[in-house]
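New to this. Look over this protein:
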Amino acid sequence: MSLRIGIDIGSTTVKVVVLDEQNKLLFRSYERHYSKTRERACETLHTIQDQLTGKDVRLVITGSAGLGVAKAAGIDFVQEVYATAAAVNTYIPGTDAVIELGGEDAKIIFFGGALEERMNGSCAGGTGAFIDQMATLMNVSIDELDRLSLKHEKIYPIASRCGVFAKSDIQPILNQGGRKEDVAASIFQAVVDQTVAGLTQGRELKGKIVFLGGPLHFLYGLRERFVETLHLDGEHAVFPEDGDCFAAMGAALCAADYATAPFEDVLKKLEESVETVIAGAQRKSAVISPEEKRIVAYHETGHALVAALQSHSAPVQKITIIPRTSGALGYTMQVDQGDKYLLTKQELENKIATFTGGRAAEELVFGEITTGASNDIEQATKLARAMITRYGMSEDFDMVALETVSNQYLGGDASLACSADTQNEIDRKVVELVKRQHEKASKILADNRGKLDELAKYLYEKETITGEEFMSILNKGGEEE
């Protein structure tokens, strides 16, 4: 029997587990995805690639946000209720009910006979997102909120239908000198009330109850409120050690019913689903001439080589010259190692240089330029302008906001907030910045012309190469035979 992998993609997190033939947990991961579900799943699988390469695996995806990923990648999917039930029946037999809280959903599953699941509707009240919102309102971290709640002396009635109602209850309490400890516990009690009253709908919660999901795994104050409200003892309130990953464990158990595949093939499917989002699906029917294919090979190699030979740049993960439905004839994928929330001035300049690397390669090798750099030009210009007008990365303008962005979640319309003379100066500095990075990219490629030729030739022949292949050729002494 092969190893089994379960991936649970929820509204805010991705959970990945690996089980052996005896259902023993070999690996587990619980990470926020910040709306990059496929990328996070791929990054997690890359961390265990060395252990699983060359092995056959069975992989199944579950979760509220998992169906779209599974369909895009061509990977098997199982409904979350069945995955959770499989894990509970395997690891905690005799369970009567499950209470699970997620980032933006809450559910109760009743066992005994047919499974019955009850789930919150469109509102995220009484979930992890609600708790995050309340911690922000109180200006404390989630961990601090939890610690405060364990020292409470009284409970206030607080609405948990949504943050607006809760805020209208909490703010007066704080204004009147209410203890933060009591408010913290009251927030957790509101979650309990919303879950129990809203989802049981008159059905009694009794017997052995298993508590699952990230909030119930990490927040001991929340656990306490559930136990006290439902009058449970240690035998009937079960908090599994890996309760935050139980649905993923269930997906892995369900994977036993599906076919095996080499780990590399499964990972490739997920990676290609990420590429589909970035650049569109492969357009294998497209036919381009050998000369154009050679130009594209040098263009993409130029991007990759400039990226790799600069410090503080994201690693190259993949280069391809297979045309995509988006119209791109090729692209270079870079993936940051781990989550990244801040970018330095040097990192942004490196990005601009990388954008110009394709055009620089065309100029160096062919002494001619093409329309293939149109998107690169747009991205480089947009980033350079933001550095000057929004990020305060120009010595002349210092920390002055020269541009405002409205409707940032609906496309981000930008408008300059300065005089016509200043606008002209901004335009001049944008041109200078992009031109400076273009010159840097050209020098990098000229200084490494041998590697540029070698890598472009290899890409031309293979059409798609991995970051590992790229770095192997870049770092070796001579050209492979």
In short: Confidence is low (pLDDT under 50) at residues 407-411.
